[in-house]
Amino acid sequence: MNPKITVFTPSYNRAKLLPRAYESLRRQSFKDFEWLIVDDGSADDTKTVVESWTDAPFPIRYVYKENGGKHTALNRGVQEAKGDFFVILDSDDWITDTTLERMIAVWDTVPDKNRFAEVVGLFAYEGGEVVGTRFPRDVLDSDPAEIQAVYKVWGDKLACHRTAVLREFPFPEDLGRFVTESLVWYRIARRYKSRFV
User: What is the pLDDT of residue 181?
Assistant: First the structure.
């Protein structure tokens, strides 16, 4: 049976940072997830570190690919994902113990799920200060383009995407080694809404 969520981590020479992300996943109150790590051509001991987690309470899948940039790792992750939802957890990030549980709880409140691509929450620094700006309301149905242009919200946020929607909108791989994620988020915004909390 497939997991509800694929937590996806793109990694490039981040073996020393991955253990913190791993520990935060071990503490999750929500257990129905897998961790998919796509190694974008690392030259460090990333594979060895990942393979050392033999007692993980959740499935871990490690995929190695030639270096092509984060956007190509995202494409590979979306292709490989088994979960209905896709949460991008960068190698230098970690999440609070109830993050995945809360994201699914918010998703369950979305009325017309076919019209929505994701639920989006806030990121904070280690001291608790919110990264960028907060949303104007506790719950706001909008989209990534409107949230920036109209509501003037900026800064990294954490999203729980529908995997099926991400498969509709792959990142272009012919634009060089760096492609901003907002390119795809804005394309998705033309067709789907997001719930910001």
Answer: 85
Name the pTM for this structure.
0.95
- Tens of pLDDT, residue by residue over 88-119, are 999 999 999 999 999 999 999 999 999 999 99
DSSP state of 151: T
C-alpha–C-alpha distance, residues 151 and 154, integer Å:
9
Provide the β-strand partners of residue 130.
124
CA distances for 137 relative to 103, 105, 141, 194, angstroms = 17, 18, 10, 14
Is 146 strand, coil or helix?
helix
What sign does the dihedral 42-48-53-59 (CA atoms) show? positive
- The CB-based long-range contact list for 191-194 (8 Å cut-off, 24+ gap) reads 191/117, 192/115, 192/116, 192/117, 192/118, 192/143, 192/165, 193/115, 193/116, 193/117, 193/141, 193/142, 193/143, 194/116, 194/117, 194/118, 194/119, 194/120, 194/141, 194/142, 194/143, 194/144, 194/147, 194/159
| 140-184 pLDDT, tens digit each | 999 999 999 999 999 999 999 999 999 999 998 777 667 788 889
pLDDT computed for residue 62 by the predictor: 98
